[in-house]
Amino acid sequence: MVMDQVISHKAVRLRFAARGVALASLVLMAVARPVAGQEELDCDGRASLHILVTDESGLLQLPGATVVLQWSDVVLRPIRQPAGADGSFSLCIPEDAQAATVWAEFGDDSSEEAAVTFEPGTAQQVHLRVLFGEAEPGRLVGRVLDVATDRPVATAALSIAGRAQEVQSDRQGRFALAGVPAGNHQIEVRRIGYAPLQYPVTVTRGLTTELDIGLVPAPTEMEPLVITAVRPRRLEIEGFYERKYFGELLSGGTFFTLEDIDRRRPLRITHMLADAPGIRLRCPGSGRRGCWVESSRAAAGFTSGGCELRAYLDGSPISVRDLDSLVLPVEIAGIEVYQGAAELPPEFGGYDARCGAVVIWTK
Q1: Where in the chain is the domain with CATH 2.60.40.1120?
Q2: pTM exceeds 0.70 for this model
Q3: Least buried of 78, 144, 222, 278, by fewest C-beta within 10 Å?
Q4: Phi, psi at residue 254, to the nearest 5°?
Q5: DSSP letters for 168-211
């Protein structure tokens, strides 16, 4: 696809197309007259057509509306005649004509087309309703593509100039803008990394217009963006971040960083530990040690006396029941929580760690 911000605009329908040049001269009996008098039209055995033009509701007749008739099966000049004072129009059909397409125009507005067939000696009646204003808006659909690669462009923002509605293209570059008023508009397309585009488009009432939009890649000037993260030196040395990387990759263990602790702001460290999956907080309500954490396997009957986790503080083993008394949340740089022996790294393993372990690192 080679183009410089080019849009292939596919016409949805051509309403006013010439159907040919008249090859014969024909005098048609076309008279605007009241509907009540249509039966009086003498067509000498030929078919007749009686048209009534109103607004969309059908209640208001439109005098002077232009009736347009194009023949479908004979080469005759199209008819454009004004309706009468009551919005009606009647004519006799040529002997060799069997079908036609008719519609009505009133200013910049028009009715939908109607297909009519004729039989000799019969009278056809057609009611044309002119659609005004935005009663039936149009619709824009299409794709946004990269001019250089012909690949779909996702998340491109598309809107009609002067209107608040905005849509984004999907992963296939497709988009749809519904409820667009009929008439001439400017479609605006924006996407980071591409030159912005404005293109004139004509929307037809009640119809869908298809667009293929090609965006030209352009260098984007942005302010430099630098994201920094400060890691405690102790955690780097002790391998915390390496275990965290592989643990999260393999679903082995839960890790709380300094940022997690600052965001949670727990009153006691056991409250933070209880947020880890498979860990529960146990507070007997009496005794000098208060609350501690244990594996939820205790609730499932893993052991009758509870399944306490093994605890480490800066690499040294301690009792899990002493955590709240030995360290405050503001002193902690990182926490590792392992739910069972299968998750434990070798340095924190052992028979007494069969229920898992909690590892605390201070700042």
Answers
A1: 30-131, 136-215
A2: no
A3: 222
A4: -120, 140
A5: E--TTSEEEEEEEPSEEEEEEEE-TTB--EEEEEEE-TT-EEEE
